[in-house]
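Thread: Modeling a multi-component assembly for a lab meeting

Hi all, long-time lurker, first post. My supervisor asked me to bring a structural picture of a complex we are working on to next week's group meeting, and I have zero experience with this. I have the sequence lines for every component (782 residues in total). Could someone generate the structure of the whole assembly? Inputs are pasted exactly as I received them:
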Amino acid sequence: MVQFDLLAKSIRAVTGQDKPQHGSAMVVALAGNPNAGKTELFNALTGLRSRTANYPGTTVERKLGYLRVAGKAITIVDLPGMYSLRAVTPEEQIAHDILTGKHPEAPRPDGVVLIVDADNLERNLFLVSQIRELEIPVIVALNMIDIAERHGIQIDAQKLSRELHCPVIPMVAKTGRGVDTLKAELERWVTGHRPKPLPLAFPRSACRCDSACACPAQFQSRFNWSESVAGRCLKAPVVATGRRTEKLDRLLTHPVAGLLSFLAVMLSVFYLIFSVASVPMDLIDGLFARAGDLVAAHVPPGDFQSLLVHGIIGGVGGILVFLPQICILFFFLGILEDSGYLARAAFVMDRLMRRVGLPGTAFVPLLSAHACAIPAIMAARIIKDRRDRLVTILVAPLMSCSARIPVYAMVTALLFPTSPGKAALVFTAAYGSGIVAALIMAFAFKKTILRGETKPLVLELPGYKIPGLRNLLLYTFDRAKVFVQQAGSIILVISLILWALATYPKTEPSVEVSTLAAQAQMENASGNAEGGAMLEHRAADLAAREALAHSFAGRLGHLIEPVVRPLGFDWQIGIGIISSFAAREVIVSTLSIVYGVGEDAATQNREGLYDTLRNATRRDGSRVFTTASSLSLLVFYILAMQCMATQVITRRETGSWKWPILQFSYMSALAYGGAYLTFQGLTALGFG
Amino acid sequence: MTDPGDLRLDQLLPHQFGVIQHIEAPDDDSERLMSLGVCTGRTVELIKAGDPLILKVFATRIGLSARLAARVTVRPLDDNPASAPESEPSHGPV
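Re: Modeling a multi-component assembly
Sure thing. I ran the full set together rather than chain by chain. Output:
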């Protein structure tokens, strides 16, 4: 019973009982430059024995892993990547605080494993010089020596070890080469042979300030030191490096060719998300439908059955159905990032995106949002500046995600049942409107509440590499886990609330329903099973329709009717809108129920549903779905924030409820205003 | 300190080398530059002109917006540093 297992996990995640019990003998921090292969080493050391959380009060990820050496447990803390100990970004601030023992929550580590990129020794030694001054035991992991060797760089590790007064272990974290030597060194530490750190013979600069000083003289003297140390430890003079990188860069950072390559790459990823993901998504959908049927067959009908089938199984299924898209997106994002390509993509998009006040990196999450806003908002982590990241998160849900497709399909079918050309035009216009709205809003946010210049681009373009599969899989697994645990639990609670709103209070079946049921029994008794079944079905549909109309959700629908009437909607559409605040696509099945076609019609008999909707009338006899009201509904769904899951993820990624509330408010206002203008404008033009 | 021959970083020609003289940018921008190695006294090579441009310092390629590059003063080197004995034996020209 997968879902119960999941439920239990979700509850544990909410109540915070999933903290592993461990009596760790030692805490070791993993530090290093970005792109030096820190995550690869973390994965090589800890594998699946890790967990991810945020540092309290921040959105910086805290990754902890566990490792057993000589029968003793070692906790590995993966510090955020940093170029220097000076805290410029929130990530660097946390890394700095932990290493210096100033972090209020995390204890000072017992030692540091410092990852150094062998292919870029001089620059990496800068951070080494700063951390070696902290009086904390250090092991230098000289990573990516395979790439360095291929570039003709031969480093004398023993000499470097003597220069730095600490062990230096050459390794290739991706393949595991040298990792055992590191473990052996950690074993010495954990069995009590941790050396007292010797002070580093570092020439002081003219300015008498500490390691965290930012004056140019500090940087200058440290870099001079790095260069002389590297010069002494290189066995052979370095010949030309990076020819291949330069050739690739000439294409991939070209203003036109680079842009086209990037679009081609993103379209392929996008295509895979839609095409490949649909198979497991259908499978998950089918699995949960079957589980629902199974429960319905074994549990007597009633509230409990409905709670199990619609509340829990439907709720969990509604969450898990997003998983394939999330996994595929993050797997490919991992490839783009680890190969070094993502930096080039950000580079070529930077100038275009800057016009609306967003950095080049924002393009990836915004494009991903066309599949689903949830992974897009999670992917916004690649944007380093907080303000830029917030703007991207706020506007990402305006992109037409796949959950809007059923609604778009319904409206186009209502408007142009026989004209595929016009239907395609409506679809394209819907996608285009979402993109334009997002760019306008991004610009507006930059001019108002998130005022400020986009940070000028300063971005390392790392050498191209072939990504390691283990790293990719662990990254994907980690993202999926975050989604299921953190969003899943809250989404489940919300779907239970919505289920209750649509189910209670109960009403007695009306005279009509009882009459139909009685007629059905008579038909059955007289041997006309077919007629009996049909009547039973009609009775059930009518009962469901009445139950929904009298439920809290139905009453809310009536309550908001005056509000949605200027948009051309009636109370039935009102219920649809309320129910689709959990997830947009729910409106199709809700409309099937409220217009009395039966819930099954939403999946099995679309044409029957569309016919009914087309002919649906108000009390005064006028049609509900005119051109004006249909387009108004379309505009509403393009712009409205109707996805609890997205809101939960926005809360998680921004660290405060303020942002999801703002996101909800501005998008609702935009949706209402847009739908109002559409309906009133078209009515005035005679399309009512 | 200043020399009439000094240029703005974005004025270097592709594959021309220059020694950083001065960075006149807001603190966090200049710290980001300096921690990546774009720091007074370092020799940099312009790989690709434009906005953003690409710069090489040590073995690192850095994408940099022209707006920020314009705030960095460099003294152009006529020859590349591999043939200039006074400069460092870093990862040389390509």
